[in-house]
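B., you asked whether I could sanity-check this one before it goes into the benchmark set. Here's the sequence:
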Amino acid sequence: MLESLVTSKTRIKLLLKFFSHQSSAGYLRSLAKEFDESTNSVRVELNRLTDAGLLVAEDEGKTKVYKANRTHPFFTEITNMVSKFLGLDELMEKIVRRMGEVETAYIVGDYAKGIDSGTVQMVLIGKNLDVEYLDFIRDKTYEKVQRKVEVEIFDKDPGDIQGIKIFGV
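And here's what the prediction gave me:
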């Protein structure tokens, strides 16, 4: 879906990076390395997205750091589109609805950092969770969005979880 709207693969990677997680930030060289792209192709797309107002650039010393422009009128729409592209919204909704007594759900790991590594790591906290359904949804998720799902389950909050809280009571 996203590939039909945006023809630049580098631009898609940047949109996924900055709009899949609200606090994602990056600078030119680290983005080029992360995407395995030339600095020139990343620079061109960063400039286009900044000129369009979708990204903001802030100077941190001699380095320019890029972030999503949260005040842009299309911020929410692009974030939702990226989430749908990744299939995370549907996955989370299904898991929380069908798993049983889910108290809290987090996305952790690379996706929480805004990196599309191909693996979605989740932490579920709850009681009497349906582990058989979890195996089924892992396979379906991979078929649908070509992303591996890894889930850790806890019956109580283990404490300091670093990630995106997607559901909680």
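One thing to flag: The longest strand covers residues 119-127. Otherwise nothing jumped out at me.
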